[in-house]
Write a structure and sequence with these properties.
- The chain is mainly α and about 210 residues long.
- It has four helices and no strands.
Protein backbone atom coordinates (compact mmCIF):
# COMPACT_ATOMS: atom_id res chain seq x y z
CA UNK A 1 0.00 0.00 0.00
CA UNK A 2 2.74 2.42 0.95
CA UNK A 3 4.57 1.57 -2.29
CA UNK A 4 1.47 2.33 -4.36
CA UNK A 5 1.01 5.66 -2.57
CA UNK A 6 4.68 6.47 -3.15
CA UNK A 7 4.35 5.69 -6.86
CA UNK A 8 1.22 7.81 -7.05
CA UNK A 9 2.90 10.71 -5.27
CA UNK A 10 5.95 10.43 -7.50
CA UNK A 11 3.74 10.41 -10.59
CA UNK A 12 1.93 13.58 -9.44
CA UNK A 13 5.24 15.26 -8.65
CA UNK A 14 6.63 14.31 -12.06
CA UNK A 15 3.59 15.78 -13.82
CA UNK A 16 3.82 19.03 -11.84
CA UNK A 17 7.54 19.27 -12.57
CA UNK A 18 6.88 18.73 -16.27
CA UNK A 19 4.21 21.44 -16.29
CA UNK A 20 6.58 23.82 -14.51
CA UNK A 21 9.33 23.06 -17.04
CA UNK A 22 6.98 23.74 -19.94
CA UNK A 23 5.87 26.99 -18.30
CA UNK A 24 9.49 28.07 -17.79
CA UNK A 25 10.34 27.24 -21.40
CA UNK A 26 7.35 29.26 -22.60
CA UNK A 27 8.37 32.21 -20.41
CA UNK A 28 11.93 32.05 -21.71
CA UNK A 29 10.71 31.87 -25.31
CA UNK A 30 8.45 34.87 -24.71
CA UNK A 31 11.31 36.77 -23.07
CA UNK A 32 13.62 36.03 -26.01
CA UNK A 33 10.92 37.12 -28.47
CA UNK A 34 10.43 40.39 -26.57
CA UNK A 35 14.15 41.19 -26.54
CA UNK A 36 14.45 40.40 -30.25
CA UNK A 37 11.40 42.53 -31.08
CA UNK A 38 12.80 45.43 -29.06
CA UNK A 39 16.19 45.16 -30.78
CA UNK A 40 14.58 44.89 -34.22
CA UNK A 41 12.57 48.04 -33.52
CA UNK A 42 15.68 49.95 -32.45
CA UNK A 43 17.61 48.77 -35.51
CA UNK A 44 14.64 49.80 -37.66
CA UNK A 45 14.89 53.34 -36.26
CA UNK A 46 18.56 53.42 -37.22
CA UNK A 47 17.86 52.22 -40.78
CA UNK A 48 15.12 54.87 -41.08
CA UNK A 49 17.68 57.49 -40.09
CA UNK A 50 20.18 56.13 -42.62
CA UNK A 51 17.53 56.12 -45.36
CA UNK A 52 16.66 59.75 -44.60
CA UNK A 53 20.37 60.63 -44.55
CA UNK A 54 20.85 59.13 -48.01
CA UNK A 55 17.83 60.97 -49.40
CA UNK A 56 18.88 64.29 -47.88
CA UNK A 57 22.47 63.81 -49.03
CA UNK A 58 21.32 63.16 -52.60
CA UNK A 59 19.14 66.28 -52.57
CA UNK A 60 21.92 68.51 -51.22
CA UNK A 61 24.39 67.02 -53.73
CA UNK A 62 22.00 67.84 -56.58
CA UNK A 63 21.60 71.41 -55.31
CA UNK A 64 25.38 71.81 -55.06
CA UNK A 65 25.89 70.61 -58.65
CA UNK A 66 23.15 72.94 -59.95
CA UNK A 67 24.66 75.85 -57.99
CA UNK A 68 28.12 75.20 -59.46
CA UNK A 69 26.68 75.14 -62.98
CA UNK A 70 24.74 78.40 -62.63
CA UNK A 71 27.00 80.24 -60.19
CA UNK A 72 28.22 82.66 -62.86
CA UNK A 73 24.63 83.80 -63.40
CA UNK A 74 23.93 84.33 -59.73
CA UNK A 75 27.21 85.91 -58.57
CA UNK A 76 28.90 88.66 -60.56
CA UNK A 77 32.17 88.95 -58.64
CA UNK A 78 34.64 86.44 -60.12
CA UNK A 79 36.61 86.13 -56.89
CA UNK A 80 33.44 85.16 -55.03
CA UNK A 81 32.53 82.79 -57.84
CA UNK A 82 35.83 80.95 -57.39
CA UNK A 83 35.52 80.82 -53.60
CA UNK A 84 31.94 79.58 -53.64
CA UNK A 85 32.79 77.03 -56.34
CA UNK A 86 35.62 75.68 -54.18
CA UNK A 87 33.32 75.27 -51.17
CA UNK A 88 30.50 73.74 -53.21
CA UNK A 89 32.97 71.40 -54.92
CA UNK A 90 34.37 70.30 -51.55
CA UNK A 91 30.87 69.73 -50.16
CA UNK A 92 29.83 67.79 -53.27
CA UNK A 93 32.82 65.44 -53.15
CA UNK A 94 32.52 64.90 -49.41
CA UNK A 95 28.77 64.28 -49.73
CA UNK A 96 29.40 61.70 -52.44
CA UNK A 97 31.90 59.91 -50.18
CA UNK A 98 29.50 60.14 -47.24
CA UNK A 99 26.66 58.66 -49.30
CA UNK A 100 28.85 55.71 -50.32
CA UNK A 101 29.67 55.17 -46.64
CA UNK A 102 26.02 55.52 -45.61
CA UNK A 103 24.98 53.01 -48.27
CA UNK A 104 27.53 50.54 -46.91
CA UNK A 105 26.32 50.88 -43.30
CA UNK A 106 22.69 50.93 -44.44
CA UNK A 107 23.09 47.62 -46.28
CA UNK A 108 24.84 46.15 -43.22
CA UNK A 109 21.90 47.20 -41.02
CA UNK A 110 19.35 45.70 -43.42
CA UNK A 111 21.26 42.42 -43.59
CA UNK A 112 21.37 42.14 -39.78
CA UNK A 113 18.34 39.93 -39.13
CA UNK A 114 17.97 39.93 -35.37
CA UNK A 115 14.84 37.80 -35.55
CA UNK A 116 16.52 34.81 -37.24
CA UNK A 117 20.28 35.18 -36.67
CA UNK A 118 22.06 33.52 -33.75
CA UNK A 119 22.73 35.86 -30.84
CA UNK A 120 26.50 35.55 -31.30
CA UNK A 121 26.26 36.63 -34.95
CA UNK A 122 24.01 39.59 -34.12
CA UNK A 123 26.42 40.62 -31.37
CA UNK A 124 29.36 40.46 -33.80
CA UNK A 125 27.58 42.48 -36.48
CA UNK A 126 26.43 45.15 -34.05
CA UNK A 127 29.95 45.44 -32.61
CA UNK A 128 31.27 46.06 -36.13
CA UNK A 129 28.45 48.53 -36.82
CA UNK A 130 29.11 50.42 -33.58
CA UNK A 131 32.80 50.73 -34.54
CA UNK A 132 31.78 52.07 -37.95
CA UNK A 133 29.57 54.70 -36.31
CA UNK A 134 32.55 55.74 -34.20
CA UNK A 135 34.58 56.24 -37.38
CA UNK A 136 31.64 58.14 -38.87
CA UNK A 137 31.52 60.57 -35.94
CA UNK A 138 35.28 61.17 -36.18
CA UNK A 139 35.01 61.75 -39.94
CA UNK A 140 32.07 64.11 -39.46
CA UNK A 141 34.01 66.15 -36.89
CA UNK A 142 36.95 66.50 -39.28
CA UNK A 143 34.58 67.46 -42.11
CA UNK A 144 32.88 70.12 -40.02
CA UNK A 145 36.22 71.65 -39.06
CA UNK A 146 37.19 71.73 -42.77
CA UNK A 147 33.89 73.38 -43.76
CA UNK A 148 34.24 75.98 -41.00
CA UNK A 149 37.75 76.69 -42.21
CA UNK A 150 36.48 77.20 -45.76
CA UNK A 151 33.71 79.53 -44.54
CA UNK A 152 36.33 81.39 -42.50
CA UNK A 153 38.34 81.83 -45.71
CA UNK A 154 35.29 82.71 -47.82
CA UNK A 155 34.12 85.45 -45.46
CA UNK A 156 37.66 86.82 -45.02
CA UNK A 157 37.47 86.44 -41.24
CA UNK A 158 41.27 86.52 -41.12
CA UNK A 159 40.98 90.25 -41.81
CA UNK A 160 38.25 90.76 -39.21
CA UNK A 161 38.90 91.93 -35.61
CA UNK A 162 40.18 89.28 -33.22
CA UNK A 163 36.95 89.40 -31.22
CA UNK A 164 34.92 88.62 -34.36
CA UNK A 165 37.24 85.73 -35.23
CA UNK A 166 36.98 84.27 -31.72
CA UNK A 167 33.20 84.63 -31.78
CA UNK A 168 32.93 82.86 -35.15
CA UNK A 169 35.15 79.97 -34.08
CA UNK A 170 33.53 79.57 -30.65
CA UNK A 171 29.95 79.79 -31.95
CA UNK A 172 30.68 77.39 -34.83
CA UNK A 173 32.30 74.80 -32.59
CA UNK A 174 29.52 75.09 -29.99
CA UNK A 175 26.75 74.69 -32.56
CA UNK A 176 28.52 71.76 -34.24
CA UNK A 177 29.15 69.99 -30.92
CA UNK A 178 25.49 70.34 -29.91
CA UNK A 179 24.29 69.11 -33.32
CA UNK A 180 26.58 66.05 -33.24
CA UNK A 181 25.61 65.28 -29.64
CA UNK A 182 21.88 65.23 -30.33
CA UNK A 183 22.26 63.55 -33.71
CA UNK A 184 24.40 60.66 -32.51
CA UNK A 185 24.33 60.46 -28.71
CA UNK A 186 20.60 61.09 -28.38
CA UNK A 187 19.78 59.48 -31.71
CA UNK A 188 21.82 56.59 -33.07
CA UNK A 189 23.73 55.68 -29.90
CA UNK A 190 20.48 55.63 -27.91
CA UNK A 191 19.22 52.81 -30.12
CA UNK A 192 22.62 51.09 -30.26
CA UNK A 193 22.74 51.03 -26.44
CA UNK A 194 19.24 49.55 -26.36
CA UNK A 195 20.28 46.83 -28.82
CA UNK A 196 23.45 46.06 -26.88
CA UNK A 197 21.50 45.73 -23.63
CA UNK A 198 19.01 43.35 -25.25
CA UNK A 199 21.85 41.27 -26.75
CA UNK A 200 23.50 41.00 -23.33
CA UNK A 201 20.22 39.78 -21.84
CA UNK A 202 19.84 37.23 -24.66
CA UNK A 203 23.41 36.02 -24.12
CA UNK A 204 22.68 35.58 -20.39
CA UNK A 205 19.55 33.56 -21.19
CA UNK A 206 21.48 31.47 -23.72
CA UNK A 207 24.25 30.79 -21.17
CA UNK A 208 21.78 29.88 -18.42
CA UNK A 209 19.99 27.35 -20.65
CA UNK A 210 23.19 25.52 -21.60
Amino acid sequence: MELDELKKSWSLFSKELQKETIANEEQIAELIANYKAKSTKSLGRITDFQRASLALGGLVLLLCIVSIIFISQWVEDELWQDKIAVILGFISLSLLAAMVWDWKTYRWSLQTRIDIMPVAEVSRRMTVFRQWIKYEVIGLCIWIVAVNALVYWLRDYDEAPVVAQIFFIASSLTFDAIAIYFLYKKGIYKHLDSIRKSIEELEDIDTTNK
